[in-house]
Design goal:
2 domains; alpha/beta; nine-stranded mixed sheet; Rossmann fold; S-adenosyl-L-methionine; 20 helices; restriction system; about 425 residues; Leucine-rich Repeat Variant
Length: about 425
């Protein structure tokens, strides 16, 4: 083993610093030896230093690292060094071959080096084939670079606009029918809590799969009408269907987890999971049997949490683009200058309504509206319930567009939003679909 490979990390760092200028062959030799140091950080730093040379005579040396049994970060840096040479022959003869590597990190680094030559047919034709790559991140990059038409864009000019036909309208009708009439790229934010599978006051589903199919259809339409790169927040939690008799057990359905995969397939990009924690005294007691008898296998904890799953409509633009689509004064006025949640665990007391069985606390709505929309944005909820989200959005100077199929709940919504009656239109489904006439 060579001396450089056995140096302590501290000593190796000093040697790299002393020889980082690569002023002569001896310094280059020393840095090359440190590429094989057992410490990954040292090896990567040595490669970064060597990469400054952009010396094509060292290509075989880098290939030895790439094709050897070395740490992923070391192999990845060696690929990066080849890419930074920006040499077409190296790209064709070596980087293209690395697209077949089993490690997606190596493939991604090779893609970065190859994208410099997007104007070259030989390279772009090969890269386009990766649209069917086994790795999802590779597929996403290829889609964004070569298949932009797969994204549903709106323009910077239109992004902050709210169409008047949806502004401050609350409709008593079927969410799907109403959504199908809405134009693409119309909604800035959707926050909703779908009716639970066991919520018999809404619909009777013949099976859990039928229930999930219904939600999938709704959120597919929500995806279409959502503006480029904007958010969907879905509040759900596992639910229990009570047992039908003493000799049968109850059944628990993991709604957020079963729904998640379907949303991602639609194009929604998962951003965050926020845990809403409620006081234990406010939830159904499931721990009583275990607490009394303390028998193993009987443990069922009290469910004090619900989830807010945060998704963003797939976009090849970063959030900065969305923010720049607004006038500076709108961004400034929308800043969250009061206290805010610093973690994904939000402790908020539930609230209750004499008509609706599942009501959003206003604080929960306020948080979501403030964190995920700008003033003047259009906030949508396909299952309005009691109207708390509408009240929150309006109080925070947003616009609302919402649907509720239950006539009883719709009347409760009108009652709860009486303070905003002058700003809102309450319509039935037929009237809305006919253009409000």
């Amino acid at each position: 083993m060579k001396l450089m490979e056995t140096l302590s990390v501290q000593k190796a760092k000093q040697v790299l610093k002393d020889n980082s200028n690569l002023e002569n062959d001896e310094q280059i030799k020393i840095v090359k030896e440190l590429v094989f140091h057992e410490n990954t950080e040292i090896a990567v730093t040595a490669l970064k230093i060597l990469g400054k040379l952009k010396d094509k005579e060292n290509v075989n040396f880098y290939l030895t690292i790439i094709n050897g049994e070395y740490e992923e970060k070391v192999r990845k840096e060696a690929v990066s060094v080849l890419g930074r040479m920006r040499d077409y022959n190296i790209a064709v003869n070596y980087l293209l071959n690395l697209l077949d590597d089993r490690n997606p990190e190596i493939v991604l680094q090779a893609i970065r080096g190859l994208l410099v030559f997007k104007s070259k047919t030989e390279i772009t034709d090969t890269l386009k084939q990766l649209i069917n790559h086994r790795n999802e991140i590779v597929r996403d990059i290829i889609e964004k670079e070569f298949f932009p038409n797969s994204f549903d864009f709106d323009t910077k000019k239109d992004h902050s606009i709210v169409k008047k036909e949806y502004m401050n309208k609350i409709i008593n009708g079927d969410a799907l029918k109403i959504l199908r009439s809405v134009e693409n790229n119309s909604i800035h934010l959707t926050f909703t809590s779908p009716p639970y599978y066991n919520a018999r006051d809404y619909s009777i589903y013949s099976s859990y799969e039928e229930y999930l199919d219904f939600l999938e259809e709704v959120f597919s339409e929500v995806y279409r009408v959502t503006k480029d790169g904007r958010f969907l927040i879905v509040n759900t939690s596992p639910i229990i269907i009570p047992r039908v008799g003493r000799k049968y057990s109850s059944k628990r359905y993991p709604i957020p987890y079963d729904l998640h995969g379907r949303l991602v397939k639609q194009g929604w990009e998962f951003i965050d999971d926020i845990i809403w924690v409620k006081p234990e005294a406010s939830v159904k007691n499931r721990i009583g049997g275990f607490q009394q008898f303390r028998k193993p296998l009987m443990y069922k904890p009290n469910a004090v949490t619900e989830q807010l799953m945060v998704y963003r409509k797939k976009s090849n633009r970063l959030i900065d683009w969305n923010i720049r689509a607004y006038e500076d004064e709108v961004v400034e006025a929308s800043k969250v200058l009061t206290d805010f949640e610093t973690t994904n665990v939000w402790e908020i007391d539930p609230v209750y309504d004499k008509v609706h069985s599942a009501v959003f606390p206003k604080k929960l709505c306020d948080n979501v509206v403030k964190y995920y929309s700008m003033k003047g944005d259009l906030v949508f909820d396909p299952f309005v319930g009691s109207g708390t989200l509408a009240k929150s959005a309006l109080s925070l100077e947003r616009k609302v567009f919402m649907t509720e199929i239950s006539k009883e709940y719709f009347e409760r919504i009108m009652e709860n939003l009486s303070d905003y009656a002058m700003e809102l239109e309450f319509l039935d489904e037929e009237t809305f679909l006919q253009g409000g006439k």
